[in-house]
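ESCALATION

Customer reports they have been waiting on this structure for their group meeting. Please prioritize. Original submission:
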Amino acid sequence: MARTSSKKPLALAPSDPMPARIDPCLATLVDKPPKGPDWAYEVKWDGYRIAVHIEPGRARILTRGGYDWTERFPTIVDDARRLAVKTAILDGEAVVLDDQGRSDFGMLQRALGRLPSPYEAGAIVFYAFDLLYLDGRDLRRLPLGERRRRLEPLVAGREGAIRLSEEVQADGDEFFRVACAHGLEGIIAKHVEKPYRSGRGEWWQKITCKRRDSFVIVGFEPSTVPGHLGRLLLAARRGDELVYVGGCGTGWSNELSRELRKLLEGMATKSPAVALRRKAAVFVEPVLVAEVEYRAWTDDGKLRHASFKGIRSREDEAAVFQFSKGIEE
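Update from on-call: job pushed to the front of the queue and completed.
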């Protein structure tokens, strides 16, 4: 059930300049949902985090890393121009939904054109979950509950390319259980009294049904089947360097296996991006990122039971997994 409120939005100060870009608020991975009336829950969408900037006469779309991807999301841009605002910045996720209404990253990356696809850019939907700027007012200093009260009248009930990511009033543990049972990636918990803070913090928390991160593709091992892919070789960031974290040999169909093999062969290099020797390996330029689902890490820093979910360009570097002092980020 969606959260509703009878409170009126707080009055704001005089006009604020519109930011050219805002670093997104990022959720911290936790094991269990937080409890209490100060927490709101949403579905964790499986797509691209983007910000929609609406300005007089135009709309722009920026990725999490700050790249302008306006041309890649024409239907979202077109729908943004129809919103009843003069200026605004909406935070949310671009997704493609499967036939059961679940977001599917593989379908999204095909719609964006990296691999042959039956899906068009028009299938991409933007689920807005926060409003950072509206008609001359910077909303980031307001609590989440206040920001949502301004967001909902703009996008609630719409069925176009821009829609509302609904808040759910439920017990966090039960909502998480139901989300996993329905094949969703997980849930997000947000503290309703906190302002919007760029970077990773405890005020937004993510609870995933399985672990999932992005890793740089540094090579591949051919399959024993001619023309097919056997295993992707993956790397994470440690400081300014890439370090090998193991491989991934499942998660693709026969057709996708051939497409990936052909794509990667066109990026082959004799200069590996990581310190790794493999007799059968073909090393590639580190320009693509694999979305990978996995169960855990080994003691020596390798992925366990990794499964391929999709690819993206490394130009949005912010998404790549980075080691901190321990294994987990």
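Sent to customer with the following note: The helical segments are 74-80, 105-111, 144-155, 172-181, 254-265.
Escalation resolved.
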